[in-house]
Records
---
Amino acid sequence: MELSKRQQEIIEIVKADGPITGENIAERLSLTRATLRPDLAILTMAGFLEARPRVGYFFTGKTGSELLSEKIKKFKVHEFQQVPIVIKENVSVYDAISTMFLEDVGTLFVLNEKGCLSGVLSRKDLLRASMGQQDLNSIAVHIIMTRMPNINVCQKDDLLLDAAQQLINKEIDGLPVVKEGEEGLVVIGRITKTTITKVFVELAIDSHV
Ligand code: ADP
C-alpha cells in the first residue's frame, strides 16, 4: 500500500506522541479534524493505527509487509473459487479435448454416475492419450484420468494459502473445491494457478492493504 505524504506524517506523529486524539493530530498538521478523517480511517482500516474511544490513536507497530501477510493468511477458498468445468466418465477423450478448448480451462473434473468426483484430467493427460495410434473418439476419459483416492482437493473454508501450497507441493495446476455428499465428494468450485495469479495482481493494485 502506497501511503500519501500526509498519511506518513500522521503515522510519525502517532508514533512519537500516541496515544493522541484526532483533534490533536489535526492541530499539529494545521488542518481540520474533518479533512483528516479519511486518512485516519484508511490508516486504521489498513492496521497501521488503532483507535480507542476517548483515548486516541495508537501506532500498532506493524510494517506494511506484516499487514499484507496477515491479510493473505485470512483469505478463504470460497472468496476466490471459480466455476468448475466437469464431464462424465464415459465422455470420449476427443470430446474432453473439445470441452477444454470451448471452456478455456486447463483442468477438467470427472464425475461418476452418481455425480460425485471420480477423476481429474489435465492438458498433458489428454496430450499423452493423443500420442498413441488410438481413435480418440473410442477412448473414454475414465481410462486415462487420475482417479480417486489420489485426487488432491480443498474445501470452501480452507485457507487460500493452503490451497496454493498444495498446488506447489503436488506440482498440479488446479484443485477441485469439494463438499461431502451422501455418495461421495460433490464438486462446487475450482482453485487454479490462475486464481492465485489474479489474487496476487489484485493485492498489488488494491490500495487498502
Ligand atoms: P499438466 O499435465 O498440464 O502439467 P497438471 O500439472 O495439473 O497439468 O497435472 C499433472 C498430473 O497431475 C496429471 O496427470 C493430472 O491428471 C494430475 N492432477 C491434476 N490435478 C490434480 C489433482 N487436483 N489431484 C491429483 N492429481 C491431479
---
Amino acid sequence: MIKLSEIDSNYYYEGNDLGYSFNDDVHTFKVWSPLATEVKLCIYNHYDTKTNTTYKMEKNEVGVWQVFIREDINGKYYNFLVNIDGVNNEVVDPYARALSINGEKGAIIKIEQSNPEGWFDHKISKITKPTDACIYELHIRDLSIDNNSGIKNKGKFLGICQENTISNEGVKTGLSHIKDLGVTHVQLLPIFDYGSVDERKSSLMSEYENSNDYNWGYDPINYNAPEGSYSTNPYNPINRIKELKTAIKTLHENGLGVIMDVVYNHMLDVNKSSFDKLMPGYYFRYDEEGVLCNESGCGNAIASENKMVRKFIVDSVKFWATEYKLDGFRFDLMGLLDVQTMNEIKKELYKINPAIIILGEGWNMGNSLQDTEKAIQLNAYKLRDIAFFNDDIRDTLRGSYCDLKEKGFLNGANNLELKVKKGIVGGINYSNNIITWGEVEPNQVVNYIECHDNNTLYDRLKINEQDEDKIKYMSRLGMSIILLSQGIPFIHAGQEFLRTKYGVENSYKSNDSINKLDWKTKYNNMDTVKYCKGLIKLRKNCSAFRMETSEEIRQSLRFIAAPNNAVAYIIEKENSYGQFNKIIVIHNANTNSIKINTNINLDWKVVVNKYKSGIETLKVNSGSKFIIEGLETLVAYN
Ligand code: CA
C-alpha cells in the first residue's frame, strides 16, 4: 500500500503529455493514478450514449496509465474507468481540452479545428507593462443580455465580439462601449467549464435569454475547456472553443488584452471531481481528523503544495496562455495557493509572453499552509511581478465590506488621509508612516473600489446618502483616486455609469435584472461615463500616473499640506513627463470647498475638475493658490 506521504517523492510524473494527444495517426491517452489497480479507457460514439468500447491501459513506474489507439476515433467521446480498492469509478480526464455537454465526457477533437480564421497571425494587445494597463472586469452574460443591448448573440462569447452596437437610446453598447471607454484589458469572470448552469437548457437561444439560470461561475468542474453555456451550441465540443477564441481574437484586434479569471483554489464538489477518484486524499486539503478543509468557504480547498497538484495548475495555466493567447490571469483566492506554485506559474507564463499580467486575491485565509508559504499580500516581496488586489484602498474609500453602514473617505469618514495616501503611492514603502506591504513595486498593486463581489460603489454610497448628485460626485472622486493612483487600476464593468445591483451584494446567482449591464443606466449617466473616459485618457497620456518603480515614486511624488479630508500632491521629476512638467492632484472629500497653496507660482492648466476630465485645458489657474469645490478632484499641470 502506498502512503500519501510517499507520493511526491516516489510517484511524481514530469512529462508534459498527460491527457489526450494526437500525433502521426495515433491517439494517446495518459492519466496519473498511482493507487489504481486497473484503469480502462471508455470510448463513446455519442455524448449521451451509455454503451462504450473499453481499452485496457498500461501503468508505468510512477503511476501513469496509458494507451495508444490507431483506429479513427476522432469526434468520439471518452472517460476513464478507474479501479481503486476494488471500487470502479468513471471519471472525466482532468486534462480534457474539449468536452461534451455539461462536461460529462472528454471529447476527441483535433484542437486546430477550433481556430477561427486568421487565428495564428492576429494582432495581440500592445501593452508591455502592467502599470500601463487599465483593467475592466466583465461577466460574459452581463455585457449583452439586456434586451436593449442591440447585440445579437446575447449572453454568449460571440456577444462580446459584435462591433458598432447601440441601445434604443443611441448609446454605444458592448464592445463599442468598452473600446470607447479606453480601458486596455478586459478581465473575464470564469470562462472555464463550471457546474452551476445547465448547458442543456442554454442551447436554445430563446430559452437562454429568458433563463434565470445565472452564475458568476466560481464552481469549477473541468479546468481546461471553456464553459458550454456561453457557446451557441454546447453540444458541439469544438464550437465553444472556437467561439471563445473568436471573442479573444476580436478583442485583440480592437486593441484590448484579455485576462482570464482562474479558480484553482477549490472545486464545485469533491465527490463530483475526477481528482479525488484518481488519487483519493491527495488533491484537496484535509485536517488532522481527515475532514475536508473549508478554507475557501466553498466546501473544499485544493492542495496546491502537493507536487502533482502544483503540476496540474501550472500545466493548465500554460495551456490556456498558449492555446487561447491570453494576456493575463487573475487568481481567485490566490492566498490559498502557495508561493512556490505562483512563482512556477510566473516563470512558465513569462516564457510564453513576457507582457502577461498576473494578479490575484492575496487574502490571508486558512491554516493549512504556514503564513510564510501563502501567496498573500505580506509575501508580495517573494512574488515579484505578481499583483495583489488592494483592499486597503477599497475599504478606505467606501468603508469596510464587513459593515455596510460604515462610511469611507468619499462619504464623510474622518482621519483617512494617510490611508488614501498609501493607495496613491501604490502600496509601496514610501516613507516612515506610509508603508503597506513592505518592499513591493507598483506593478504588484491593483487599486480598485468596486468589483463583482460586494455592493457596487453606487449601491454602497446609497446606503448612507440619498442625494443622487452627491452620490455621483462621490463616485467620480473615487474613480479619480483609483485611476490616478500609482499601480494598476481596475474597474468593474458599469462602474463608469454608476451601475446598480439594487443593493444585492452577493449576486452570484441572482438573475439578469440584478446583474445585467443596463444600457439605459448608461444613457442616464453619460456625463459620468465621459468623466471616467477622460480620466483613463489622462492616465494613458501622462506616464507620471504610471511610474514603473517604487524608487521613482519616492523621488517624484510629494504630498503637500491640505485641510482635513483632502489629499494633495505634486508629481515632478528632472526630465519632466513630456508636456507635463509639474502635475498637481487634489482630492477633496469635504462637501464644502477648500483652499490649497502649492507655493509654486505658475500658470497651471486645469485638466480635471468636478465636472470634466481629460487632457484638454479647462481653464488656467494663475499663481500658487487653488480653490477646490466640495467632492472635487482637481488635476492641473504646467
Ligand atoms: Ca458547464
